[in-house]
Amino acid sequence: MPDILTVSKVSKTYASGHRALDDVDLAIRQGEIFALLGPNGAGKTTLISIVCGIVRASGGSVTVGGHDIVRDWRAARALIGLVPQELTNDAFETVRGTVTFSRGLFGRPPDPARIERVLRSLSLWDKKDNRLRTLSGGMKRRVLIAKALAHEPRMLFLDEPSAGVDVELRRDMWQLVRGLRDTGVTIILTTHYIEEAEEMADRVGVISKGRIILVEDKVELMRKLGKKRLTLQLERPIAQVPATLAPYALELSADGGELAYTYDTRSAQLDMVGFMRRLGEAGLTFKDLHTTQSSLEDIFVDLVKREAA
Q: What is the pTM of this model?
């Protein structure tokens, strides 16, 4: 797939002197779900705000669908939908009215059928004539998503979309995201719910201290940086790991009842036959074993810690 978004050497320094972005390079493919992960203050929202024309970059360039966001801003912004973190709505407008108005802001002709489809997809149709001030926080979040989709964007930004929403909305939202991706819409999301990024994203980018430190296909990232952990529950507790097992760098639990072996998923699989033989030679027997694999959250935390060190 061709790139729909290209960020080249983008930097942002605020008047206070704070450098929020430091020569960021990033390319997003058309029709993918891309998760941008980073700790608070890493630069996620600043980067999104620059692409969407809310904040002006101090340096570098951004193109959306081949349109420069400064020189050809109108065409670039017409391709973008943004669901911001903050709930900013006209409290006295109706649901259908505010979504219809958002479509008109981008010069799109009236299309009541399109508005109805969007509202129905977000379970808002029965609220179409309600004023926004009467809605719950979760319903207002749905309205923000509807407004972002009203003008049929080709790229949708979801900035912490799950913050403060209920489980039902989260489920509906991800079903909608999958449907949009299937129609060719590019989805770029930031989230603190990393398990959602693990479930949804095609690729993952990690930003820390204003710099992109990694961009990788999710599956490949987890293969490269993931770890597996084999835990053995021993028949009898031991005081220390036998010297003959030292090459495995085993971890002994505080009560001496468990041995754990952690290994890189890129390395050769653990030689179970040889390992079990070594256990037997050391006089150790076990009553149970299980394996676990690191999640995307584990990898993310490890990356950020290493960057901060």
A: 0.74
